[in-house]
């Protein structure tokens, strides 16, 4: 008997099955791409991540529970500005006066500046009736300044208050220095770190003996820790030159190197001394009683952040060594 022949199409059955499988796989892949994935709910005890704002747009770090002493206080805004479309809460302008508040002699002309494009508001009467700033103004007697800023997107800063104490210049100090009260006596303290010039780079890489010799060469002496601290804290015993609450924008305390003296107007103490915290450490003439042959340095340097305070004196160095982050400031007795 002759064998029964199979239909011709069955010869291609394996290839047909193979093609069907390939087509099905492609369809499944395409469908899965168009399907919206299901995101599981986060755990109840998780904390959502918050994108940090850049340094130049960071919110002012002010402790509203404890107002700043005397010459810098934060006050709540009583009349919020209407926020236009496009408002984002993480962009606050940085408004600052130059010169900063504190004691000034005879009179002082103050200008207001904004680091970003913003509307500057100010008042010389109270924190409520703010008006647009147009030109510098002059204080000839003790006065108070309120100011704030509004960004292009409507974000308004808290109102900052500064006191400007106007006194008659007693003429006690010469050579770019200011009188500072130290336990009832006046001491003349240099306005800037050596070489005591505005916009000059502070001198570093000097040991304590070289610092003392430099001060002696201009008829002064290396500041003691007590003199240095009095100039930094002011009559209100502030934690920082500008007040009690740390602000990373005020002094050169969160950067990779030193800055030129006087570059930051807010880093001014009540007595008119600049860069006492941050920028560079400063040698003092005060030995550390707990470490033989070591002398205190004060103020912290360019990366000390909030740890660089007017009361910081736990660090001391061997006086014969020079350091890249240590400079000095000179003082003089009132004659």
Structure description:
The strands form 4 sheets. Strands 1, 3, 5, 6, 8 and 9 form a 6-stranded mixed β-sheet that branches. This protein has a 4-stranded antiparallel β-sheet with strand order 10-11-17-12. Strands 15-14-13-16 form a 4-stranded mixed β-sheet. It has helices at 13-34, 208-217, 225-233; strands spanning 73-75, 95-98, 102-105, 108-114, 118-123, 131-132, 137-139, 143-151, 159-167, 177-182, 185-190, 221-222, 281-287, 295-298, 316-317, 326-328, 330-333. The chain is flat and about 120 Å long. It has 2 domains: 58-167, Immunoglobulin-like, CATH 2.60.40; 177-333, paralog of FGE (formylglycine-generating enzyme), CATH 3.90.1580.10. The protein is an alpha+beta fold.
């Amino acid at each position: 008997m002759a064998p029964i022949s199979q239909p011709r199409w069955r010869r291609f059955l394996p290839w047909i099955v193979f093609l069907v499988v390939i087509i099905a796989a492609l369809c499944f892949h395409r469908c899965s791409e168009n399907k919206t994935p299901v995101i599981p709910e986060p755990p109840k005890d998780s904390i959502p991540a918050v994108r940090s704002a850049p340094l130049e747009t960071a919110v002012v770090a002010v402790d509203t529970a404890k107002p700043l002493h005397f010459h810098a206080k934060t006050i709540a805004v009583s009349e919020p500005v209407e926020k236009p479309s496009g408002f984002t809460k993480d962009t606050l302008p940085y408004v600052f006066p130059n010169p900063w508040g504190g004691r000034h002699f005879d009179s002082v002309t103050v200008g207001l500046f904004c680091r970003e494009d913003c509307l500057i508001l100010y008042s010389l009467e109270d924190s409520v009736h703010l008006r647009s700033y147009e030109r510098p103004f002059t204080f000839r007697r003790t006065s108070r300044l309120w100011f704030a800023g509004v960004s292009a997107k409507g974000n308004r800063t808290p109102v900052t208050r500064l006191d400007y104490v106007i006194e008659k210049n007693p003429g006690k100090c010469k050579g770019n220095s200011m009188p500072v009260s130290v336990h009832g006596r006046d001491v003349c303290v240099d306005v800037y770190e050596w070489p005591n010039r505005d916009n000059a780079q502070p001198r570093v890489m000097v040991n304590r003996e070289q610092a003392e010799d430099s001060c002696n060469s201009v008829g002064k002496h290396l500041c003691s820790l007590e003199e240095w601290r009095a100039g930094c804290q002011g009559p209100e015993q502030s934690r920082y030159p500008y007040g009690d609450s740390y602000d990373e924008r005020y002094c050169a305390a969160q950067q990779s190197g030193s800055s030129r003296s006087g570059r930051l107007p807010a880093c001014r103490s009540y007595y008119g001394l600049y860069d006492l915290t941050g920028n560079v450490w400063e040698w003092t003439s005060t030995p550390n009683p707990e470490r033989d042959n070591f002398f205190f340095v004060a103020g912290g340097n360019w990366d000390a952040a909030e740890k660089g305070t007017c009361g910081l004196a736990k660090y001391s160095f061997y006086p014969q060594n020079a350091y890249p982050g240590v400079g000095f400031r000179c003082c003089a007795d009132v004659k």
